[in-house]
Specification:
The protein folds into four domains: 171 residues, FAD/NAD(P)-binding domain, CATH 3.50.50.60; 46 residues; 116 residues, FAD/NAD(P)-binding domain, CATH 3.50.50; 102 residues, 2-Layer Sandwich (Enolase-like, domain 1). The protein contains 16 helices and 22 strands. The structure holds flavin-adenine dinucleotide (FAD) and NADPH dihydro-nicotinamide-adenine-dinucleotide phosphate (NDP). The site of flavin-adenine dinucleotide has 36 residues, from helix 2, helix 3, helix 4, strand 4 and helix 11. The site of NADPH dihydro-nicotinamide-adenine-dinucleotide phosphate has 25 residues, from helix 8 and strand 18.
């Protein structure tokens, strides 16, 4: 997780910006103060904020259809093929569990409860389309010019736009922002992967149920998709080549996958896919190797969903010609703390930028702050440290700060105190649900007043819980601040304010009583 540091990062940038502007080759007036390439989370936020400060702004957004031909509207990954449809499908899955609980709570639900993919998908897609429309209206209201065009750089002040029908346009701008995000990768070394598989660019737009699904990958996207597919009653297997949720606290990752397994998701641990073949029946036959035994296995699936990471969307931007430096390993754009690229007047934010979290709120905040700096309204830099996040798996996992492994690495095992608790959400009791994986971990430094350096929570509404505590984190709270906070009873989040058993003590961490 992100480096541990606090406080606002400010830099006197204004002098530097005006210095950059003076190096420009153009002396005449530009068409725009700012042209943004990419109308996703970061690009839209930046363009609207800049317009608010009186800048003349244009946004170019263009969606290259997925390999399977799926396409969508304005708003980028989050709105169309990410956070929003994912969270709604996750909600659909949670409701399935809630219906089961409901019987215990006195609801008469006669007959089997079944799920209809088509109804869910249509409702989700309609909501997404309303957001696409909303973004267009907002741009119009804020007087940001929107072009449904693929953008590329001609030079540091000139952008070429190309429509799907091949119509070209050239714009000039004082500043250019690249916010083109990324797209899912395919494992090209696996025969049949691209031909027969889908990715997160497709799954939310399927008209028919994906049926029995193999999800390959073990990070956010794989676990979230595997989780909601199981939750709506499908046969879902997650294939993990190494560990789940790399970079996260591994004890917490284990709880997340244990819960998923207990609730029906199958896991193929330490397995790698070898090939995908389409059978005459239309089923997909997948061959994989179990790395433990070195044995090959086969099974048939209706759908194979690749969730093996994302590639930055730079191919068509012409960046090498203009000299925008990329990280050769990741292909992402190298950026300075003020989001500047190696080329003056050209900036990059969001998923396309090297070393940034691939999360919507960071892209949005970075975009807004950049707009304010470019408009000469502020010199505040984006603080990428201690960004809270949540994995929307069937048992949600939210965290902020360091994992236990990272805390030990940075501070030494003897210099940290880990408080922990296994708790039972009240709503699980009447429903007689197993709460073995509902767990809280607070990691503090042992010295001084025990500053908190990591906070982890698995349980219902983890995102809501962690969002609140992230504020404390940002304010530099300590273990005693946590204990001084009066809980709200009866909630899951209150367990954080009562946490008192240390791992070091070896005591049973199960919360008992009210
Ligand atoms: P994007 O939102 O990807 O926008 C880039 C836009 O630029 C796209 O519209 C693209 O089509 C367009 N574009 C690309 N090239 C060009 C070009 N040459 N010309 C014109 N336009 C171009 N984050 C969270 O915080 N919470 C979540 O719950 C969450 N869930 C996710 C679930 C999934 C399945 C995925 C895949 C991602 C999820 N994310 C989540 C991550 C989040 O969606 C991204 O971090 C965020 O969208 C990045 O914003 P961005 O502005 O950098 O790029
Ligand atoms: P990640 O890059 O985080 O993870 C890729 C996963 O695929 C890893 O488990 C990796 O395993 C595995 N993998 C890679 N190549 C192969 C292969 N050839 N065969 C088998 N497995 C492979 O990608 P995601 O797409 O899951 O997520 C991208 C980003 O999107 C995240 O980092 C996150 O920031 C954002 N996101 C945020 C969400 C949220 O906020 N809730 C939800 C979804 C996405 P290994 O560890 O072995 O390399």
């Amino acid at each position: 997780m992100a480096a541990f540091s606090r406080g606002r990062h400010r830099l006197k940038l204004l002098g530097r910006l005006s210095c950059q502007t003076s190096t420009r080759r153009f002396t005449g007036k530009f068409d725009y103060d700012l042209v943004v390439i990419g109308g996703g989370s970061g690009g839209l936020a930046c363009s609207k904020e800049a317009a608010q400060f009186g800048q003349k702004v244009a946004v170019l957004d263009y969606v290259e259809p997925s390999v399977k031909g799926t396409k969508w509207g304005l708003g980028g990954t989050c709105v169309n093929v990410g956070c929003i449809p994912k969270k709604l499908m996750h909600q659909s899955a949670l409701l399935g569990t809630a219906v089961k609980d409901a019987r215990k709570y006195g609801w008469n639900i006669s007959g089997p409860v079944t799920h209809d993919w088509t109804v869910m998908a249509e409702a989700v897609q309609n909501h997404v389309k309303s957001l696409n429309w909303g973004h267009r209206v907002q741009l119009q209201d804020k007087k940001v010019k929107y072009f449904n065009m693929k953008g590329s750089l001609v030079d540091e002040h000139t952008i070429r736009g190309l429509t799907a029908r091949g119509k070209e346009m050239t714009l000039t701008a004082k500043n250019i922002l690249i916010a083109t995000g990324g797209r899912p990768k395919f494992p090209t070394q696996v025969p049949g992967a691209m031909e027969h598989g889908i990715t997160s660019d497709d799954v939310f737009w399927l008209k028919q149920s994906p049926g029995k699904t193999l999800v390959v990958g073990a990070s956010y996207v794989a676990l979230e998709c595997g989780g909601f597919l199981t939750g709506i009653g499908l046969d879902a297997t997650v294939m993990v080549r190494s560990i789940a949720l790399r970079g996260f606290d591994q004890q917490m990752a284990g709880l997340v996958t244990d819960y998923m397994e207990a609730y029906g998701t199958k896991f193929a641990w330490k397995c790698v896919p070898r090939k995908v073949e389409k059978l005459p029946s239309g089923s997909l036959e997948v061959t994989w190797t179990d790395l433990n035994s070195d044995q090959d296995h086969q099974d048939q699936f209706d759908t194979v969903l690749w969730a093996v990471g994302r590639a930055p969307e730079t191919k068509t931007l012409n960046l090498d010609k203009v000299g925008v430096q990329l990280n050769p390993e990741t292909g992402k754009i190298v950026v300075a703390p003020d989001e500047a690229t190696s080329v003056p007047n050209v900036y990059a934010i969001g998923d396309i930028a090297e070393g940034r979290p691939e999360l919507t709120p960071t892209a949005i905040k970075a975009g807004k702050l950049l707009a304010r700096r470019l408009a000469g309204q502020s010199d505040e830099l984006m603080n990428y440290n201690n960004v809270a996040t949540t994995v929307f798996t069937p048992l949600e996992y939210g965290c902020v700060g360091l994992s236990e492994e990272e805390a030990e690495r940075r501070h030494g095992k003897d210099n940290i105190e880990v408080y922990h608790a296994f708790y039972k959400p009240l709503e699980f009791t009447v429903a007689e649900r197993d709460a073995s994986q509902c767990y809280i971990k607070v990691i503090c430094q042992r010295e001084g007043n025990k500053p908190i350096i990591g906070l982890h929570f698995t349980g219902p509404n983890a995102g809501e819980v962690i969002q609140g505590f992230a504020l404390g984190f940002q304010c530099g709270f300590t273990y005693s601040h946590l204990l001084d906070t009066i809980g709200i009873h009866p909630t899951c989040a209150e367990e954080l304010t009562k946490i008192h058993i240390t791992k070091r003590s070896g005591q049973d961490a199960t919360v008992t009583g009210c």
